[in-house]
Specification:
heterodimer, A: two-stranded antiparallel ribbon, 14 helices, globular, B: about 325 residues, mainly alpha, Formate dehydrogenase/DMSO reductase fold, two-stranded antiparallel ribbon, cell membrane (chain B), oxidoreductase (chain B), electron transport (chain B), Cytochrome d oxidase cyd, subunit II (chain B)
Amino acid sequence: MEILDVARWQFGITTVYHFLMVPLTIGLALLVAIMQTIWHRTGDPKYLAMTKFWGKLMLINFAMGVVTGIVQEFQFGMNWSAYSRFVGDVFGAPLAMEGLVAFFVESTFLGLWIFGWDRVSKRVHLASIWAAALATVASAYFILAANSWMQHPVGVEIGPDGDPQLNSIWALLTNSTVLAAFPHTLAGSLAVAGTVLIGISAWHLARRHRHSPVDDPDRQVWHTSLRFGGWVGVAAFAAVAVSGDFQAKLMFDQQPMKMAAAEALCESEEPAGFSIFAIGDLSDPHCGNVSSVTVPALLSFLAEGDFESEVQGIEELVPAYQEKYGSHYPVDERLGELSGMPIDYVPSLPVTYWGFRLMIGFGVVAALGAAAGLWLTRGGRLPKGRWFAPVALASIATPFLANSFGWIFTEMGRQPFVVVPNPTGVDGVFMYTASAVSPGVSLGEALFSLVALTLVYAALAVVELFLLIKYARAGVEGVMRPPWQDPPADSDEGSTEPEKKDPDVLAFAY
Amino acid sequence: MDLPTFWFLLIAVLWLGYFFLEGFDFGVGMLLGLGTKDERERRVLINTIGPIWDGNEVWVIVAIGATFAAFPDWYASLLSGAYLPVLFVLLALIGRGVAFEYRGKVDSARWRRNWDRVIAIGSWVPPLGWGFIITATVTGLPIDINGDLRGGPIDLIRPETVLGALALAGFSLLHGAVFLALKTDGDIRWRMQRFATRYGALLLLPGAGLLWSVQIGQGSTWTAAVAGIATLASVAALLLVRRGQVGRSFALLGVMLASVLVVLFGSLYPNVMPSTIDPLFDLTVAGAASSPYTLTVMSWVAAFGTPAVLLYQGWTYWVFRRRISTAQIPPVRVP
């Protein structure tokens, strides 16, 4: 095993793990801000209960998102120091902006929101959840701008030392790739939050409210939450599909090899069909033995928006890449066994092909679930069958899986590059993953950190899941003291907590 | 002043902000295991920093991010060179961050005891690690012409780096005690004041040693003057805490910290990281800096961002300015 493999595994594990938490935080923070706004406008205690309940789940999850995110920022320097030196002039800027513009706002105002229920006015309190929620969105934008630059470098020239230098921050922030990736990711995050709302609400409705009257306050909380999640989910999935289509069209231009691999398309086709699933040996690098069940001409439409265009296949792309970017790795001891070897421009076909399909597949399943949830609860109804709650609970996993497979596809699909060359950009702005790892780090150190981080992540995943389930099961009573449904007339929200009557006791304390 | 020098200064300021702010909340975490009698007191301690520790931690995220943007070579050499210390700090910060949030979520003595351990470890390791890492960048690492570490992690362990680790941990512990004397009421308040009075000088001793060793090794006349300020400020801080003037003592500890960092970074300049192998391999401010364009863009972002951060973070400190005692802690309520 080489340090390159260890560093890649660590990056992959850290990123995918981090991205289990982040979409839920982004999505829930926005939805909680909306719930609190409705409560602020209407005074309906149902929305206060929703704010507190879903806010609690958001916070349990937020802690994990923060601590796994710290590792992300450091591992570029720890494991990928050659990469950091090469691209630091460009890549560091959006990262620093994310810290300065987004993280400070997010952490400060979230602290204010958690502890501020009785310390600031209701209006300021509402503003602080919005500040925190919008900062999570801004943070997603900056980090995606950094990632998009690796997928499609723009706004740079070659500096005096041969490394890329930023010459337009505007170009970097309005990179076509980030303009597509950002809405796609944001919609994916809202889809996650919507599905979580549906699943947990369905479980509460099925367990407690099979025979409750329509005006039971607790039933109303879950019914409203479910429908809220349903609408968010359906809208988010529509946005995911539209932005995903846009993104795919860009990718056919910017990273044709990634899309050819995603389709296991060996020979160029005109028009090209979209593969539903493939039979054969995908691990064969030249996919000679693969046959696909395809929808005729659909791939041409995905790529170019018409049903006739040619889509380039792997066999045609490989020689073009070799001619443009070289056929062999440079002879350099740092590259280990890859030194002087031919460069394989085809990313892992099983990973990209199935990653792409599983992303879309799980997304579609989740979308159907959200639509079904809306249909079954229309007009205050509850789903009759006993199958609905377990299915809704299980379907919580689907958008998480779709997100993870999406990232695996997009990151694995750009191999062997860490910075993918831009076909219309400046020559020489690209980097092979193999040349990006830290030369000064030993295999032992890298292995130790891979094992340590993975074990800690695994342990914390168990704890987080345990707490999320515990608080999700407890429902509104877990976060508010009954009878939360009718607060005294003279009170603001805080007085739903009896402790508040003593002005000295903190309304919220760890 | 040229842009690289400005960014060198700004990064020093970010570290100062981090060590000052998170310094005391690390201290509170350390004292959780040392200076509390029961569960209610532990909750008092945690709640003094509950609303703000996360915001404090962002200072280091921005310090590292700014280093990446402004001095990529420094970022790459430091983080890959000090690989294991950085990893231990990260593991500690991971545990600490979730521990605050999760500790009160289950009503069980064992659950809380375990998380208290995580908080204690998570509050000791980062100041030790950061003290070690920052001293390593000031006094140099065995880096070659490419900025890559030669030798192994053992080569980082030297008298100065160990002193740096102890210095920051000692400072954080004292700073935390003084902060608690300022933020709590009742029995804890007096106990913390007593703790600071009794052990303050001892806790600042490694810092004095570090200051002395850096000044002898790399300092100049003007850094000697600043080292003098640091000494005066620490003596005054210790005297004031003895007399119960805790607020002033807290501020003077800040002056001391700032002076020490000025000496450290001042004697480092114009390098960002010297090489202990050959002065030719030193990473310099000018050599490690990003292009003028990137630095200009980042300067504009910092020019608007930094004052805003100071304003709203300062305001949250004002919102949560009240002293906390065991009387204000609500009963435990978990599902």
